[in-house]
């Protein structure tokens, strides 16, 4: 599970995300074969995420990479920064 929060979110206090993740970690510690739990805190971002296009694209790439890793989906990064997903 991936939880994303902004450190300047004025609608959902980032502390709530930390508490939610801590609760999940406590429960997941008892489950055999549990998938990874990850929290990402975006610096200088509010409820809508980052405002910079470069940061937004990098953030989406990180999300896709996380899910590819967790699900075991093979992917290959080409030299032109295009990520090609190989679906069987």
Low-confidence stretches: none
Trace the largest sheet across and list its strands: 1-2
**Terminal CA distance:** 23 Å
Largest sheet: 2 strands, parallel
Q: How many strands?
A: 4
Number of structural domains: 1
Number of helices: 2
The radius of gyration over CA amounts to 15 Å
Tell me, briefly, the overall form: flat
The helix content is 25-40%
Q: Give the helix/strand class.
A: alpha+beta
Mean pLDDT: 76
Q: DSSP strand (E) fraction?
A: 15-25%
Structure description:
This protein has 88 residues and is α+β, with helices and mostly antiparallel strands. It has one domain. The protein is 39% helix and 18% strand. The protein has a two-stranded parallel sheet with strand order 1-2. A two-stranded antiparallel ribbon has the order 3-4. The longest helix has 19 residues, at 53-71.
What is the secondary structure topology, with strand pairs?
Layout: E1 2-6, H1 14-28, E2 38-42, H2 53-71, E3 75-77, E4 83-85
Parallel strand pairs: 1-2
Antiparallel strand pairs: 3-4
């Amino acid at each position: 599970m991936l939880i994303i929060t902004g450190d300047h979110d004025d609608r959902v206090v980032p502390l709530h995300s930390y508490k939610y993740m801590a609760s999940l970690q406590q429960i997941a510690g008892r489950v055999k074969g549990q998938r990874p739990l990850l929290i990402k805190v975006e610096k200088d971002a509010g409820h809508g995420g980052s405002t910079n296009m470069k940061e937004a694209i990098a953030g989406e790439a990180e999300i896709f990479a996380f899910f590819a890793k967790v699900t075991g989906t093979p992917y290959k990064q080409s030299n032109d920064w295009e990520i090609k997903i190989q679906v069987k």
